[in-house]
Amino acid sequence: MANSENPPGSEREVASVLREHLESYAICCRPVGSSERPNLIFSTTDDYAGRLVLHGHMDTVPAGDLECWEYDPFAAQLEGNRLYGRGACDMKGPLAALAETMILYSEENHAEPLLMLATSDEETTCGGAEEVVKSGLLENVIFGVCAEPTSLNVLIGEKGLLWLQLSVKGKSAHGSTPELGENAIELCMTALKTLMHWQYPFEWNELLGKPTLNLGKINGGSKINIVPEDCEAEIDMRLVGGQDPQGILDEMSSLLTQQGLEEKVHMEAIRTKPTVLTPKDAEIVTATLDAVESVMGIRPLLGAASFGTDCSVLQPKAGIMNVICGPGSIEMAHQSNECIDIDQLFKSIDIYEAIAQHFAA
User: Fold this and answer.
1) Cα(336)–Cα(162) distance, rounded to whole angstroms?
2) Number of folded domains in the chain?
3) Could you tell me the residue range of the domain that residue 166 belongs to?
4) How many Cβ atoms sit within 10 Å of the Cβ of residue 162?
5) What is the domain-level CATH number for residue 282?
6) 298 burial via Cβ count (<10 Å: 0-12, 13-18, 19+)
7) What is the pLDDT of residue 271?
8) Is the pTM of this model over 0.90?
9) Considering only CA atoms, which of 330, 359, 299, 348 is closest in space to residue 141?
10) pLDDT tens, position by position, 278-306
11) Residue 66 buriedness (CB in 10 A; 0-12 / 13-18 / 19+)
12) What is the DSSP string of 192-251?
């Protein structure tokens, strides 16, 4: 299993394996981006004007502490009905299923081209998807299937994202005379209490649910007997309907001003992504539900993702209506001993082919 940990970030080897394999079946490929961090757009014909794109990413999170693994994270070890390794479900396993779907579809000689997209840098910035959108190569695509692990359930949207950093400036003093300083940690705590306990307006949606806030990191002070001059904190907020990152930032700035903290607390958005939601009656949703039902024998309920995907770029910036449906459990993603169920992997190929055949017809 090729290493594509991000950070540091290099999908070159994965891209080389994927491209060589698919081109051996006469599937066309157009690379976008750098040779070290490429994005690959495949087509079953030399025409890239298909309506449907199957997509996933080539990078993974780091393997972490190898002592926590019972299996070599880069050996792709098969144990029973499970394949173990970093990226097994997130998402080299699903990418392999998409590649096999492309091969099977191409052998059926459909006039309608089927596209596949493999991106770089999804785990940090979705920068690969941004590059692909700018290339214009997907301008004819209307629908997309994102193969992120959902245990083959069907998700039609995902929460938005606002990662926020607070930088607080106080005044240093000796710990024995704290009245001569201004404690940056205490100022930061006041700011956090103000921001995190506020009820930010949103539009209720049964699939997306409510927005969430998590204080993920805080760091301040240098020594116990020094009044801390600096403090930093980072907040992870997941957005839903009726919320956009800039609107939330403006509201937060107003809250800090009301507390008299505007001069002492600097806010910066580290990363933002919009909320996306595909209409329930969209053709891609119906086609995916039909495909899952035909393979699994049960029609799944629709849901939405709390995690982020390339859909947050492809949907608002390229106008591609997406569903998220893939083999593997999202609970295994980013974990030691990450694995994927082989039976589910093969069933996903049948599902993707059924979706592709729907649009070929």
Assistant:
1) 27
2) 2
3) 160-272
4) 24
5) 3.40.630.10
6) exposed
7) 93
8) yes
9) 359
10) 999 999 999 999 999 999 999 999 999 98
11) exposed
12) HHHHHSS-------TTT---EEEEEEEEE-S-TTEE--EEEEEEEEEE-TT--HHHHHHH
